[in-house]
Amino acid sequence: DVKVTQSSRYLVKRTGEKVFLECVQDMDHENMFWYRQDPGLGLRLIYFSYDVKMKEKGDIPEGYSVSREKKERFSLILESASTNQTSMYLCASSLWFRTGERGDEQFFGPGTRLTVL
Amino acid sequence: AQTVTQSQPEMSVQEAETVTLSCTYDTSENNYYLFWYKQPPSRQMILVIRQEAYKQQNATENRFSVNFQKAAKSFSLKISDSQLGDTAMYFCAFMKLTDSWGKLQFGAGTQVVVTP
Question: How close, in Å, is residue A31 to chain B by CA atoms?
C-alpha cells in the first residue's frame, strides 16, 4: 500500500516563526502536492512538484515556499507564520500522469493541523 | 479555470438507507476525470470512485455509484445501504486530461452523518 506520512498531526506556532511541514511518500511517486483545507472552501492547492528540485505554484502560493531535495520528500515552508495560515495542511502524491497506471489517483497523508497564535 | 460546486454542506442518513450527494462543475474541457474522495474523522483522505468523462457508463464501486451527466456537468454520488463507517466528509474533484501533473480541483465538501 502507498503510504504518505506527515511529520506532525498537530502543530502550534507563534506569529513570525518559520515553520516546516514535512511529507514523505514510500511509493516512488513523481508528483507531490501540498493542499490547504479550510471549512467551506474544500482543498486548495498551494504548491506541487513533479520531480526533484522542480516545483510549480498552485492556486494559493502566497506566504508559502516548498523544497524537494529528494524524490520521496516534499517540504512546505511558512517563512513567517501568520494567524491567517492557521489551517489543516494535507500532502498528497501520485504517479507521473502519463504512466497510465492509475496515475490520476492521489494518495494523501493524514494531515497536519497547524495553529498560529 | 474549472470550478466544482457541492451545494450540500451536510447530510444526515440512517443506517441502511440511501443518500445522494450532488456535485456540479464548470469547464470548457471535453476530456477529464471526476472523483469522489472520502475523509473520515481520522482525516485520512481516500479515493471512493472515479469517472472518465469519455465513458458513458456510470462508475460503481460496491455500495457507491455515480450519476454522471456530462451535458449538465453534474456528477452525483449515491451511497446505498449506508453504514456507520460511511460517516465522513466527501469531496468531489475534477482533473483535466490535458494537465500533465494530474492536479485536482476540489469542491467545498459535504459532511455525511450516518445515524443508527
Answer: 7
State whether residue A95 is helix, strand or coil: coil
Q: How far apart are the first and last CA of chain A?
A: 37
Q: Do residue B102 and residue A58 have CB atoms under 8 angstroms apart? A: no
Distance from CA of A79 to the nearest CA of B (A): 25
Are A56 and B42 inside 8 Å of each other by CB? no
Q: Give CA–CA dist B29/A76, Å, rounded.
A: 31
Q: What tens digit of pLDDT does each residue of A25-35 get?
A: 998 988 999 99
Indicate yes or no: CB of B103 within 8 angstroms of CB of A45. Answer: yes
CA distance B105 to B83: 28
On whether the CB atoms of residues A93 and A4 are closer than 8 A, the answer is: yes
Query: How far, in Å, CA of A2 to CA of A50, rounded?
Result: 17
Distance CA B104, CA B94 (A): 6
Looking at this protein, which amino acid is placed at residue A57?
K
Q: Point out which residues pair with A71 in neighbouring strands.
A: none
Q: A83 is written with which cell numbers? A: 494567524
Please write the tens of the pLDDT for every residue from B18-35.
Answer: 999 999 999 999 889 999
